[in-house]
Amino acid sequence: MSPVALDRRGLWIAVGAFVIWGLMPLYWHLLRAVPSLQIVLHRAIWCAVLVAAWLTLREGRGWFRAVVAQPRLAGMLALSGTLIAFNWGLYVWAVNAGHVIEASLGYFINPLLNVLIGVAFLHERLSRPQWAAVALAGCGVAWLTARYGSFPWIALCLAGSFALYGVIRKFAAVEAVRGLGVENMFMFVPALALLAWIELGGDGGFFSLRWGGWTDVLLVLGGALTAIPLIFFAYAVRRVPLSVVGLLQYLGPTLQLLLGVFFFGEPFGADRAAGFAFIWAGLAIFALDGVRAARRRIVAQQA
């Protein structure tokens, strides 16, 4: 991998994105009375409305046409929008169904999955420490599956969908906010139609204030809250090396894990800790190898 100059602004924006994601379970917990599907539909709708309004004020009405006029780019953003909608949906359901710790596991696995995607699709080569890190993480997943009698599908689906989202957004040549706006506009009509069907069927509650006015306000604000880290991430991933982004991604799941144990009171016994220990060991090896590689690149540039 070729040396890439570190963009300090991009670095801090990436930190902000992962801290917001790490604390997000607290926000979804406030909406626990609302079915998870409806939370996700509201997120998609209000995120699309708010981002589209901002882009229209800033750039005029042509921002959407300028992107969809490029079929390849439009297709990439339609796919990334679908992936992030799936990711958010599963994540919200996991938090409100009492699976915060397993959700955090998904985002711990994500950096190592980024490495495997780099090997499979970007023709990147792994060092021996990186292969060891991936192997240890695989052992951790296998241990958790064996001890709990079920495959950690929540964690792996979250990791896989977000890893693919990051790859697509890295190569989608579009400004961060505009890309997010187009992603959400592709999701807007299906989300609005499904939410209208739920409301007309009597299972909703937004317009009737069934859950209370404060909950409705939180549903609207959820669109803005989830847009912010996505904008930050899309901005940073085009300016910061993926190896650095991979290291910073540990911030989010670490905060989620702490919330799962100390705020939500989910069980975290010795068996589960042992599985996580394999994964953390792999992450530590991966992080140390990344730091050493970065230092070697700096020395080579200064030589």
TrEMBL record:
Belongs to the EamA transporter family. Gene3D superfamilies: 1.10.3730.20. The chain crosses the membrane at residues 12-30, 36-57, 73-93, 105-122, 151-168, 180-198, 218-237, 244-264, 270-288. Its main location: membrane. This is EamA family transporter RarD. Residues 9-145, 155-286 form the EamA domain. It is a multi-pass membrane protein. It comes from the Bacteria. Keywords: Cell membrane, Membrane, Transmembrane, Transmembrane helix, Transport. It is found in: Cell membrane.
